[in-house]
């Protein structure tokens, strides 16, 4: 049975912070960010935008009413959970009006979670080929003002509709996963921002890539020459570039090296303008590759390296199907350029605003007129979400 990704959607916030402005405010050389991280801009989410609203927006952009009637599973992967009990997928299921007899749950393992969700979706479809599974990766990456991770923040969501006979990509049964009990990045329940051992995390990312790739080649019998592109988890693009250079075999023909490098450059375009979106970063890179690389063609095999601190990594591959471009957008960069640019002072105020609850555990929020979905308030500790009606 052929199973894979039938549709891919993306959503981010309406605000953007230019990293050249952040560099100036932090008295940092702009090249340290633009060249040292390969980043240009960060999406900044206001208090009325969270993983629920972003996830619903990403999914709404691709789903038809027929899809909503056929989806029988909704999985949200996130490390920015808004509730320790109720899954984000339940909120999104309701906002989208998906048929009621669907299983909804949330997956967590740092930035790896969406890959686990895709694995689960594929297993489900093998038993129920007439169904559809909605997988959403939704996160807001916050590190704090003046922290080393500040230039790699971001906000966004990727939605993927997994079906039989997909119209974009098909899964191959070649997954190789690895688990290590390490503390390179973690966020205890009592902390709103993560703790990061930056150098150690970089080393873990690269070593997991190296060892997983070696095992993948041994089990699959494939090598880099068999791939048109390699997609990486993108905490920041420069780290992924180091990863690509690490696995480049010196015996690889120059033409193949050039192809892989060109496609890598296409895969980081969106992340350079959005920043880190944790669970969605790998798949934002995949979407960027598909929508910006002119040389891809049906049948091409794409490798993906998924990494989540703590740590779990996985390498797997997918193949492009005929007419895959018909399911993609051609104006996404123009849409990103329409975001409202923030001053550093406004970024600090908007991104780190906290909801102030009254004695009943309630609060009203405003300023979300331009959002597709919004957190409109809290009523007795219950978060209130609405689809925002825009004027025609």
Automatic annotation (TrEMBL):
Q: Where is the Hydroxymethylglutaryl-coenzyme A synthase C-terminal domain?
A: 247-349
Q: Identify the residues that the record assigns to the Hydroxymethylglutaryl-coenzyme A synthase N-terminal domain, covering every copy.
A: 16-164
User: Sorted alphabetically, which keywords does the UniProt record give?
Assistant: Transferase
List, alphabetically, the InterPro entries matched: HMG_CoA_synt_C_dom, HMG_CoA_synth_N, HMG_CoA_synthase_prok, Thiolase-like
Q: Which Pfam families match?
A: HMG_CoA_synt_C, HMG_CoA_synt_N
**UniProt similarity note:** Belongs to the thiolase-like superfamily. HMG-CoA synthase family.
Q: What is this protein called?
A: Hydroxymethylglutaryl-CoA synthase
Q: What is the lineage of its organism?
A: Bacteria, Bacillati, Bacillota, Bacilli, Lactobacillales
